[in-house]
Amino acid sequence: MKPVSVASIEPSSPDTGAIAHYGDPGREQKILDTEAGLVDRSHRDVLAVPGVDRLTWLHSLTTQHLTGLPPMTGSELLVLSPHGHVEHHAVLVDDGTTTWLDLEPGAGAGLLTFLTRMIFMTRVEPADATAGRAVLSIAGPHTDEALTALGVPLAAPDVVPVPPAKFATGVVPPRPTARYAAAALPGFDGLVRRVEGGADLLVPRAAVPDVVAAAGLPLAGIWAYEAMRVAARRPRFGFETDHKTLPAEVGWTAQAVHLEKGCYRGQETVSRVHHLGRPPRKLVLLHLDGIATDELPAPHTEVVKDGRAVGFVGTAVRHYELGQIALAVVRQNVKPGSDGQSGGQLLVGPSTAAIDPL
After folding, report:
1. Beta strand 4-5 pairing with 19-21
2. Which 8-state DSSP code applies to residue 143?
3. For the chain, which ranges sit under pLDDT 50?
4. Got the DSSP string for 72-93?
């Protein structure tokens, strides 16, 4: 069967530049869940930031500690508003001369505008690289085997240090957060960045067909990729976020915020939420009954309890094992159960919803 584009099914989706499926979305999900498959995510935006000051400059503007980030490592970063709300999210990898940022489709222009305004006398040259670079993703438990077949050297296991003397003390200076290991993609002038559940390949756009052929993996569409993402409770900017999202509400503090770095915009709110209490909202996985309707709720459909909106749905999918599920952002006091105080029936459109307790 010919590939089916998202544009032909959901013309208003941000993923219109992607393939929805290759004929069997359920089978494609199973491949990503139990084997390894390749997903074309070349509709994502890519920014390039070359220049000798790139890491210290990005360090000063974002939530992440990037000063001294070693070559061939990656991380995530956020740009916050003065009140600590998420304005931009990007995944990055640095190759020693350039920091590459990939973002949601259509999000690159806004971040590039912000970065350009903040150059001043800094030796950096941020630019839109989407026309020249593309993101492909390998997902599944057999990702290591797939990377080996592509000639990518796998990182050696971390060396476990000898524990220090009992009750030993000392000052540990803040260090860069290198969340993702990276490597060169042999023969393709590209980069490989390990991520949760797989690996991302950042390759020249003209080389995409050759990389796909060299990988020799089954192809899976964005529907399958999104189903795995939702089941793993990984948020996506613009889907599980709105204009007032705080990093802690969607679980981005651990991976995209360095809590010991210097001042950045929105830091006061991050610190207050981290030290004084829980954020007002939280990310949850919802199970939808699928009885009242077989239509999935649209992004940002309200989650309703006792006739009042208590949150919104980000991404809803049909999972090959779990059925209709969705990521949602709800008030902190909305919990699983039906104790009448914190629980109670939730509705998403005409569908009854239940919060996954795990």
Report:
1. antiparallel
2. H
3. 157-160, 338-341
4. TEEEEEEEE-TTS-EEEEEEEE
